[in-house]
Amino acid sequence: MSQYALATATRPGRPRVVPRLANARAPRDEILHAAAELFVNRGFAATSTRDIAEKVGIRQASPYYHFAGKPGILAELLELSVRPSLEKVERIELACPADVPEAALDLLALIDVEALATVPHNLGKLYRMPDVRSSEVFAEFQPALQELTAAYGRLGADIVSSTVAATVSMDQLGGLLVQAVEAVTRIRSRGGEVTSVQGRAIAATCLRICGVPEARIVRATVTADGLLLRFAEERPA
Amino acid sequence: MSQYALATATRPGRPRVVPRLANARAPRDEILHAAAELFVNRGFAATSTRDIAEKVGIRQASPYYHFAGKPGILAELLELSVRPSLEKVERIELACPADVPEAALDLLALIDVEALATVPHNLGKLYRMPDVRSSEVFAEFQPALQELTAAYGRLGADIVSSTVAATVSMDQLGGLLVQAVEAVTRIRSRGGEVTSVQGRAIAATCLRICGVPEARIVRATVTADGLLLRFAEERPA
DNA sequence: ATTATCTATAGATCTATAGATAATGC
DNA sequence: ATTATCTATAGATCTATAGATAATGC
Q1: A204 and A178 belong to one structural domain
Q2: In the listed set A29, A51, A72, which residue is the last one of a domain according to the structure?
Q3: Chain B residues touching A175 at Cβ < 8 A
Q4: What does the pLDDT average to over B102-108?
Q5: pTM confidence score
Q6: Which of A44, A147, A152, B180 is the most exposed place for a label (fewest CB within 10 A)?
Q7: A46 beta carbon < 7 A from strand C?
Q8: pLDDT tens, position by position, for chain A (237 residues)?
Q9: Can you give the residue range of the structural domain that contains A26?
Q10: In three state form, how does the secondary structure of A154-186 look?
Q11: Same domain as B191, residue B111
Q12: A143 touches strand C (CB under 7 A)
């Protein structure tokens, strides 16, 4: 669902009941977008294949040409929203200078905030929806999500203060940090804009959760900001 | 769904296929509990009337004797989890001494945390589920929820620092505070215990969100703790 | 010929009602 | 007689497949 994929120069096939717009996305992407919006705003189980098709302007059965039904669509949406983050984790752990260990977590948080802030239709919410979590396709993605949480846990564990270490167990830490970053999806739900100032605030919150003193947070922020350009995709204005 | 309602001395009716336990709750409550667990953990739309009945040990059609179907059950669960909080709001606003204005918000947060921490099956999650929010019955409860958010907004607005007032608009403030309190449902989702220490931490977070300086937070905490006994139900050990 | 749709429909599932029935209470 | 269940089932909805068809590309 690359956000800007337009109608590919593909063979058109039989015309739709509701004609396609000239500047529409590729048919597959149209379906993904419609489904994403409905899944996030009405729920996965509450959305029928007919709902999706109607939103696109095609017949109920037509999406089956492109996808293996609702589960197939969900699988692709989950894939699209978890893979990019996961791919960056490794590069981040390598790129961060050993003398500013806090920068790694700060950078990961910044990048994830950016991803959650720009993914279409606030798709980051999918992972928290009970009907999604109890679906069969979700099971495939659970390992990937756990790996991401584990990465937060590792980077956090590297820098926790002794006071925090005494209070919060290390297998909780990753989850706590992920949750802090997911504040982005809640801001978007409320219709809020997620500015880069807010992104930095959320990243700083992650360091505070680990008990990093403010002076080091400032230093980490500067380092992470410097590294950010290497990782960030271009963000649409 | 009073958590301890046992089998009332009611006439039993035709026996179930799966016999009832001697110490079971009243039939109505059995259904509410089963539904609550399924709605929260699998989703509202993803749960069928058959799922609910099976969990109780009765036939698919039997719940209809007690409720107007799934929407009727949902309505009752929403009612049960919003009314108590709402009833307390007014009393709180009256009970708080004018010389410690921060105590009111602190107390409201403390009481709500307690409610969210003890409600069966983490029911507080219902309000955030898209299939619930787009259901027809939810519309009835939206005003009540908005009133609760508005109460947070009022109590917050009374005490915001000028710095915070400059950053966050007053109609966002209530939502921000509610969200801070709802951290409880996320802790419970992760299987965490919500201790009274955590409750106080969340209440203090609410004051920090409003920009209240630490010294005043300490004072508010003491005042609110003193008032808490008048409001809190007995909490099961 | 290939593609992307369409129409039609079978089968599964879900909801909700009507009416029967197995207990108890009076 | 009353209550709380049961059985049976109609009707709605949903999923997913088979096969037809209307366009374009070669």
Answers
A1: yes
A2: A72
A3: 190
A4: 95
A5: 0.92
A6: A147
A7: no
A8: 544 455 555 678 999 999 999 888 999 999 999 999 999 999 999 999 999 999 999 999 999 999 999 999 999 999 999 888 888 888 888 888 888 899 999 999 999 999 999 999 999 999 999 999 999 999 999 999 999 999 999 999 999 999 989 888 888 899 999 999 999 999 999 888 899 999 999 999 999 999 999 899 999 999 999 988 887 654 443
A9: 3-72
A10: HHHHCCCCHHHHHHCCHHHHHHHHHHHHCHHHH
A11: yes
A12: no
Which CATH number fits the domain that encloses residue B139?
1.10.357
Nearest-Cα distance to chain A for B62, in Å, is: 24
**CA of A10: nucleotide with nearest C1':** C3
Same domain, B131 and B108: yes
Closest CA to B39 of B48, B51, B47: B47
Structure tokens at B139: 């519309």
B34 touches strand D (CB under 7 A): no
B8 plus B109 within the same structural domain: no
Task: Give the SS3 label for residue B232.
Answer: coil
Q: CB neighbours of A42 closer than 8 A, spacing ≥ 6?
A: A51, B130, B131, B134
Task: Say yes or no: B46 and B101 in one domain.
Answer: no
What does each C-alpha distance from A36 to A77, A123, B204, B208 come to in angstroms?
A: 7, 7, 37, 36
